Amino acid sequence: MRSKNMDTNTKLVISTLCTSFFTFQLLFHFVSYWFSAKVSPGFNNLSFEKKIEWNSRIVSTCHSLLVGIFGLYIFFFDEATIADPLWGQSSLATMNIATASGYLISDLLILILYWKVIGDKYFIIHHCAALYAYYFVMKEGVLAYIANFRLLAELSSPFVNQRWFFEALKYPKFSKANVINGILMTVVFFVVRIVAIPPLYGFMYSVYGTEPYRSLGFLIQCSWISTCVVLDVMNVMWMIKISKGCMKVISLIRQEKANNSLQNGKVD
User: Fold this and answer.
1) pLDDT value of position 1
2) In this predicted structure, what is the pLDDT of residue 5?
3) Closest C-alpha among 129, 145, 140 to residue 203
4) Per-residue model confidence (pLDDT) at position 58
5) Rounded to an integer, what distance in angstroms lies between the CA atom of residue 232 and that of residue 192?
6) Are 180 and 227 within 8 A, CB to CB?
7) What are the CB-based long-range contacts (under 8 Å, 24+) for 186-191?
8) Which residue positions in the chain have pLDDT lower than 50?
9) Dist. CA 46–CA 49, nearest whole Å
10) How far, in Å, CA of 110 to CA of 127, rounded?
11) How large is the angle between the packed helices 2-26 and 48-77, nearest 10 degrees?
12) How does 148-187 read in b/e, with b if 16+ C-beta sit within 10 Å?
């Protein structure tokens, strides 16, 4: 019976992963060009290099919304994985992890193909660390709830990508849309990537030494902890960078308002 379930799970993982990979490749190479030209006239005026990164970020946004929304549902309502965060399994949780893995493989391929344009060593480290962790989730059927909890971090990506879109289209840095998006980006990034850190490691500590934890085996235990540490160090680095940018913009806005007040005072 267990063998049959394993075979079913393997088929689900492979089919979902392959579908995800080819769908995101299709989005990058074809759909994004057509969609972006329709929605944003400024897209056609971008350089080849900018269009490559634009399409990459369109795909990133689609992936983030898809796995982030399903991740939220799993986090709050998936009974099987909530009841047993270490060993609980569900088809939806498995599909969400496989979908994310298909995207990561797709994005790695795009990064390599267009390395001179969008290559980034930190993205390579991030993608490889995540894929390494997701491999155990898909192969061994463990930590599905934890893996989906980590996918909630993707909910910040649409705001990060939107910031880049505004810059590519040369929106004024102090435009209302740009400022609002920047504030939302900082807040959401902080909530889903930084605030989530203490509860995760608190949970690790609470299950350490228990029978379900020991059953994971030494390799999975080490992989769980090490990949989380790598990803969270990068999240903290990115948070610091985003916070500095946000504070700089707020400071410049205050400075500009102060200058306007002085000028108005002189005119009066």
Assistant:
1) 44
2) 58
3) 145
4) 97
5) 11
6) no
7) 186/242, 186/243, 186/246, 188/155, 188/156, 188/159, 189/156, 189/159, 189/160, 189/238, 189/239, 189/242, 190/239
8) 1-2, 267-268
9) 8
10) 12
11) 150
12) bbbbbbbbbbbbbbbbebbebeebeeeeeebbebbeebbe
Q: How many residues does the chain have?
A: 268
- Please, what is the Cα angle at 160 between 235 and 21, to 5 degrees? 85
Question: Which amino acid, one-letter code, is at 182?
Answer: G
* Those residues with Cβ within 8 angstroms of residue 205's Cβ, 6 or more apart along the chain or in another chain: none
Could you give the angle at which helices 48-77 and 91-113 cross, rounded to 10 degrees? 160
pLDDT value, residue 62: 98
HEC profile of the chain: CHHHHHHHHHHHHHHHHHHHHHHHHHHHHHHHHHHHHHHCHHHHHCCHHHHHHHHHHHHHHHHHHHHHHHHHHHHHHCHHHHHCCCCCCCHHHHHHHHHHHHHHHHHHHHHHHCHHHHCCHHHHHHHHHHHHHHHHHHHHCCCHHHHHHHHHHHHHHHHHHHHHHHHHCCCCCCCHHHHHHHHHHHHHHHHHHHHCHHHHHHHHHHHCCCHHHHHCCHHHHHHHHHHHHHHHHHHHHHHHHHHHHHHHHHHHHHHHHHHHHHHHHHHC
The radius of gyration of the chain from alpha carbons, rounded to an integer in Å, stands at: 21
Q: Are 173 and 180 in contact (CB under 8 A)?
A: no
Asked whether the beta carbons of 38 and 49 are under 8 A apart, the reply is no
- Residue matched to tokens 């399994």: 89
Distance, CA of 95 to CA of 80 (rounded, Å):
14
Q: Which of 94, 63, 92 is nearest to 161 (CA)?
A: 63
pLDDT in tens, 182-192: 999 999 999 99
